[in-house]
Amino acid sequence: MKNLIYIFLLILPGISFGQQIAKSEQGTFLLKNGTLVTVTNGTKKADLLIKDGKISAIGETINADNNTSIIDCTGKFIYPGFIDSGCNLGLSEVGSVALTQDYNELGSFTPHMQALTAVNPNAVAIPVTRVNGVTAVFTKPSGGRFPGTGSAISLHGYTPQQMYAGFSGVIMNYPSTGKRNRWDRRSAEDIKKENDKAAKELTDVWSKAILYARIDSAAKASSKSKEGYNPGMDAIVDVVNGEASILIEVNKATDIKAAIKWATEHKLKAIITGAADGWRVTEELKASGFPVITGPVLATPSRNSDKYDTPYSNAAKMQKAGIKIAIRTNDTENVRNLPYHAGFAATYGLGKEEALKSITINPAQIFGIADKYGSLEEGKMASLFISDGDPFETKTQITKLFINGWNVPIESRHTLLYDEFLDRDPGLESKK
Amino acid sequence: MKIIKLIPLLFLPILLSAQVEQGDVLIKNGTVITITDGIKENTDVLISNGKIKSIGEGLAAGDDVRTIDAAGHYVMPGIIDAHSHIALDAVNEATNVVTAEVWQGDALNPFDVGIYRALAGGVTISHAMHGSANAIGGQCQTIKHRWGITDQYDLMMDGAPRTIKFALGENPMRVHGERYGLMPRTRMGVEQVFRKAFSEGKAYMEQWEKHSANKSANAVAPEYDIRLETLADILKGDILIHCHSYRADEILMLMNVLGDFGVNKICFQHVNEGFKVAPELAEFGATASVFADWWAYKFEVYYSTAYNAAILTKNGVVTSINSDSGELIRHLYHEAGKSQKYGGLSDNDALKLITINPAIQLGIDDRVGSLEVGKDGDIAIFKNHPLSIYAVPQYTIVDGIVRFDINEDPADVRMDIDPEETAPAFFEQGGHDHDADGCMHGVFEQLFEKH
Prior knowledge:
Helices cover 31% and strands 22% of the residues of chain A. Chain A is an alpha/beta fold. By secondary structure, chain B is of the alpha/beta class. In chain B, α5 packs across α6 (226-235) and α5 packs parallel to α7. The longest helix of chain B has 27 residues, at 187-213.
């Protein structure tokens, strides 16, 4: 009976079965004769063994036992899976349908909202994303001053816990003196007033948070329980104590300077995100020591007076100033374009090598998960892909995909629709 | 009838003033991608008086003619965007489900820096479209990116056919059905809006034909109505239809309606589910202008595939890739490249998606869209192949005038600066709008903004 099921599974991809994606398989895989772009140890021709979900060996010639599936990678390239360091993937299904959006809770101070709670492991966009080589993302809430806590997830698994990739961070939107968009008709005076009010609110919230953290540690020291229920404050205690990361979204030059000053004064473990104007304040960013997650790269300049290629070249200017950078899409359904965001940054000054780091080892280091992800090294999780060329090049095809050792099919709604409709049958009514 | 014949005369001064600057340029030793006649290595292109005078080796021109050394570079036709809303002060006349009488040519804005940013992406022509709030929206205008001119009418591509925007599905349904409680609230209603409008246009046309045939000196002319007049022009085939659409069923519906009224010139825009009815589109002779990979921003694009352009092309549908966005328009060469990732189109087929095919859809393929002697001198020059991620536009030429030159590219190109603005406004960045396509610009800002 079991054999019959296997035969059925083998012929399954040939049948259009209500647009279901085939199952992933786990096992021992030997990737023979590929060109390994390790990111941390150069590029070399070698074999790579995947076992128990990990990269168990990298070597010139690795021998396989009987239980190992051999994948010939001659002429192919093997890259560590890409990591999008900021997006809403899994938190929104259809952009215009509010009830399918789970990234924006009511309220301004809601750091206890957990993105991981609302990640839909079966979001249609997840397979669409991973077949382009993006194997992990940092998915985050947005809106409000403290919209919640984001989490790094691998793009494979049936529960959020299975997907969790080992990092969570509180999101903060630093008060902005910029316009919201091109249709924002507020006068400079109104914007300043609103910003002053927001700054005061932030000061108030943070003094309370500091006080709360003191009470919290006192309570812990005396093993007494705290009074009252305050999940928001509980969610940022570790941030206040400088133990947990806070991702500070800030884009305009003057605001970035203010955010750096604020985070430095409070001795926070900050990650600056957005940083559209980062190239204008490289000195301050460098001096702060904070890493920067920037993007989208494929974006229009923030000012009409900015040069057309400002968003393309921003990452390069920050990297050259010695700032550690990662690149994000800040997208939902098109997180799959992460390699192209990095590719444009590469073209406009960052170079291929640094651009590759900005979507692999750099985000892994910024998130503190570089022991598991971000490069091809023995002992790391086997999240990687095989391609027929440079993955930044638009036409390059990804031929195999592994996430935490699972051999994931190169299938998504988009490929299944292609298979079904390229030669539609029946075709034209009149021709039948 | 005489009055009607006089109306075009009113526009005559405008048309005459549209005789904009035309230039001479000699492009030396480039890899010339002609689109219609293969690739020519180490070849020169000479533009004289705004037109391509010759393509060949060892061409020479007078000392006063600007020469561009394109050795190692790729020379291709200027990129054409069949769906854009740049250079416009207004996009949606969202006050009636039929507004065929309004015209984007009246809302052109030559000071929009979006024009320069499009040039910096090799785009020389765009189709400035009305929005998608109404089933029958306004007339659109094909423009040339003559950045630097200040007369709005000088943006117009003189001689380009008239075009009009139609819209199916969610946008007219929510603006009129949900918001105003007027038909259409469903895709059934959308069909009837077209049938009613075309029937009225047909009756109007017949009244005027009858009147024209009447030799009596006492004959009373029917009442003139510019909306019905425009609908009549559509039925006569004088206006090309560009229809915002997503779902397969509504695409089939409109082809049925058009078939009943004897109209066959249509380009479906967005047409995310075009791949499902590609054989029907090909049979009808309809064309398709699509996004490379946009999907899931609303429910009617949830069942999409980035392989759309490839499926349509392989089924014989003339297909283009458009921007509908001030962001995407800056890298349509990259968007076209996605048709190679998703469906494996050849280099030339991929480049046709942003050159000759959109030119066909706008009815200007005799003038632009390929590098041929006699065509307009609209050219984009790239470092690295334009379909490569490493491509960088170097020069963009419109009518023989260099409008973008990467070596003379000032940081601030604004021509229209608000004197009360102490520091230039900073706009918070993000991805694209997650809940709307560019076609709804103006509608939500004007009507639905919650204060």
